[in-house]
Design brief:
heterodimer, A: mainly alpha, 3-stranded antiparallel sheet, 22 helices, 10 strands, elongated, B: alpha/beta, 6-stranded mixed sheet, 4-stranded antiparallel sheet, 10 helices
């Protein structure tokens, strides 16, 4: 079982030589552009795959690390956020700075997706708001910005200082800010100027009269070595330069987020991208449309790898630790203490901490899950072994059973129900926690949940959440069955 | 055969055994008796090496305990405790086989059948788990387990505690017959004077607060008590029925 899972993991993590992996951030516009890059790469004869990242910094790190060869980025984000410490102003300076990192960017794709601050039309008219500076006259207005905007160099901190805004602000998942605006729970939020929701919700965009926000020209950011390894692929991707003007991009976003004309319904970003490259470059691209069943199957397999490998290693580490802790008081408190502390780190924080040394992807998620699974197993192994009645231990001793013999014939069988309960707890928690792997592109059920949240797509969220819940229940039932199978009958009487 | 010299064992401020000297001859049955907390169970565990005394020395067959190979020593002892000490995850048979496994000694089914007969245990019980046995049946299984490697010394800690009186009487009878037949060195702990007098009429040790108050045959303890405590202890137990419900008609 473990070998089978490891084999799957290796097969999943490794990549064939003639493949290119393209990246995108998870929001709709970036996803559409990412799928377009995939289609263009495939048109040049390569096998291409899209990997989705939760934010700019991880996507940029993945590009620098060579996990991906290219992804759509914005010049403003590069100058103000990713390379902010260099104080870059012109595009020429930016290109020079990128070249030093072994990177380059295409000609602008053709639209400027700058940040904007939006309020509802009703709020704007009631309070007479026209510019961002007008917000300062109404400190009671509740501002909520996407989590990335809250912390970016070109986001809220600079905006607040530039306009001397006294208003409090808090973070919110971008896709959730629209319903929050609509329901009056917040008064203003950050928008992208190509945001489909601006027109759909008839939002008022406040004028940036002090010119705080720079231009966010969309570009294809790529590794210079892509030109050496796959020149036709790079050439094909660079066709995106100058190809999409602002209205066109907004209509793509609208089709994916709100549905196309004539009640077409929401169109998956992959399909929008395929239609776009066919229209723009006269290609015959087809969106890779997996059936719901095959999508769920694929993610089930990925999720099982995350859970299975992390649990297998966790059991292998935690059982001996629990046994040692039960044997030695001196060892017990540090072991239980350290595993206990690991458990108190929020799972998401643990994932982010591990991105530093391990990068993103399934192996990182597996390490986080395994660290997270240690405590229930260590604690229950320790409790099961130390909870054996003293007269039984004494009997074993008097019989002459000692060391490993005693452990194997008496102690472990007696502690087995408690140990199994610990493993079951860890496994059920693990199935749920593994969905956070979506945050770091680890695959599994978390991927549709995460993408669904960033693209405001409830059906997509359910596509991950329901199977995850089902798997948790299945794991629970499987362990109940295993318990009947392996716990000696004498202990169940 | 078993020799204890100056054994002292303390638990914090409590002195469980206070400079105990004791010799036990081979092929005799000795009962350790006394009120709760007098140190009788501790003494048994010191002999077995389950408890390390703070001072004093233990010798078995004239050799100090430390010079014995622990496993070899374990083989020479059969040990059974009040609750039976049976492992709940093993059947009666597996419990009985465990000492043989621990010492890598081959064990054939005939040996178990023989011991079952000797202890008047129904062989059908062998494939039951402890939870499926009555208290008396568990004691018989524990006894078979203690005897399975044919030890030289049998150490029994309240072997018949927590049993109802009828079952207890049966087992007392069987135990005495067994001791007579096997002719082993037996040391048993009990709080019941009648049981001690019945099972070990020739050698009773009365302990109090970690010291041996008097040692001798039951008749001697009754007729020539060493001090007022011995008198009180014997009267409290022999006069129990009369004291509680009055003399008979």
């Amino acid at each position: 079982m473990i070998r089978w899972l490891l084999a799957l993991l290796v097969a999943g993590a490794c990549c064939a030589q003639d493949r290119v992996v393209v990246g995108s951030k998870s929001f709709t516009e970036s996803a559409i552009l990412g799928y377009m890059l995939v289609a263009l790469a495939e048109d040049a004869g390569a096998e291409a795959e899209l990997k989705t990242f939760p934010g700019s910094s991880v996507a940029f790190a993945a590009l620098r690390a060579g996990e991906i060869v290219a992804y759509p980025e914005y010049t403003g984000t590069l100058k103000r956020e990713l390379l902010a410490e260099q104080g870059l102003v012109s595009d020429a300076e930016l290109r020079a700075a990128l070249a030093e990192l072994g990177l380059a960017m295409s000609e602008p794709i053709g639209f400027n997706n700058t940040y904007a601050i939006g309020v509802t039309r009703e709020t704007a008219e009631r309070l007479g708001l026209a510019t961002i500076g007008d917000l300062a006259d109404h400190p009671e207005l509740r501002l909520a910005f996407s989590n990335e905007f809250m912390n970016r160099g070109d986001g809220w901190p600079g905006l607040r200082d530039t306009y001397a805004l006294p208003n409090p602000a808090r973070g919110i998942e971008h896709a959730l800010s629209y319903p929050a605006l609509e329901q009056g729970q917040i008064d203003a939020t950050d928008l992208y100027s190509t945001d489909a929701q601006i027109a759909a919700m008839d939002l008022a965009v406040l004028e940036d009269d002090l010119g705080y926000f720079p231009r966010y020209d969309a570009v294809v950011l790529y590794r210079l070595d892509l030109g050496d390894a796959h020149p036709p692929v790079l050439a094909s991707m660079l066709r995106l330069g100058g190809a999409i003007e602002e209205d066109r991009m907004r209509s793509y976003n609208e089709r994916a987020e709100l549905g196309g004309p004539e009640d077409e319904g929401r169109v998956p970003p992959a399909q929008v991208a395929a239609d776009a490259v066919n229209e723009l470059f006269d290609l015959g691209a087809e969106a890779e449309t997996r059936s719901l069943a095959s999508r769920v199957m694929l993610r089930t397999r990925q999720h099982l790898v995350l859970v299975g490998v992390s649990m297998a290693v966790a059991i292998g580490v935690a059982l001996p630790l629990g046994i040692l802790a039960a044997r030695s008081h001196a060892f017990a408190s540090p072991v239980l203490g350290v595993t206990g502390i690991l458990q108190t780190i929020p799972a998401l924080a643990l994932l982010v901490l591990l991105i530093g040394p391990l990068g993103i992807g399934a192996p990182t998620a597996i390490v986080a899950l395994l660290l997270y699974s240690l405590l229930p197993i260590v604690r229950n192994t320790h409790a099961g072994l130390t909870g054996i009645p003293g007269d039984l231990i004494e009997s074993a001793d008097a019989i002459g059973l000692a060391g490993l013999d005693r452990l194997r014939r008496v102690e472990l069988p007696l502690a087995l129900p408690t140990i199994l309960a610990g493993i079951k707890t860890a496994a059920v928690i693990n199935v749920g926690t593994a969905t956070l792997g979506g945050f770091i592109s680890a695959g599994g059920y978390g991927q549709p949940i995460f993408t669904g949240i960033t693209q405001n797509n409830f059906a997509l969220i359910l596509e991950g959440a329901l199977p995850a819940a089902a798997m948790a229940v299945a794991v629970q039932l499987a362990f109940d069955g295993l318990e009947r199978l392996v716990v000696p009958r004498g202990l169940r009487l | 055969m078993i020799g204890l010299a100056g054994i002292t064992k303390r638990y914090g401020a409590h002195t469980a055994l206070d400079r105990v000297d004791l010799d036990i001859q081979p092929a005799t049955t000795t009962a350790l008796i006394g009120p709760s907390g007098c140190g009788k169970s501790t003494l048994l565990r010191v002999i077995l090496g389950l408890i390390e005394p703070d001072s004093g020395s233990v010798s078995i067959e004239g050799r100090g305990l430390a010079s014995w190979d622990r496993r070899e020593l374990r083989r020479r002892f059969g040990y059974a405790i009040q609750s039976g000490g049976l492992f709940p995850h093993l059947t009666a048979r597996q419990n009985i086989e465990l000492p043989a496994m621990a010492h890598h000694v081959p064990l054939d089914a005939r040996r178990i059948a023989q011991l079952a007969e000797l202890t008047h245990m129904d062989p059908e019980l062998l494939d039951r788990f402890p939870a499926e046995l009555s208290g008396g049946q568990r004691h018989r299984v524990a006894l078979v387990r203690a005897l399975v490697l044919d030890p030289d010394i049998l150490l029994l800690d309240e072997p018949l505690g927590a049993l109802d009186p009828m079952v207890r009487a049966d087992l007392q009878h069987d135990l005495r017959a067994l001791f007579d037949e096997l002719n082993k060195t037996v040391v048993l702990v009990t709080h019941d004077l009648a049981e001690a007098a019945y099972l070990a009429p020739r050698d009773i040790l009365l302990l109090r607060e970690g010291r041996i108050v008097q040692r001798g045959p039951f008749a001697e303890l009754r007729e020539r008590p060493a001090d007022a405590f011995v008198t009180r202890f014997i009267e409290a137990q022999t006069g129990r029925v009369a004291a509680l419900v009055g003399a008979g008609p």
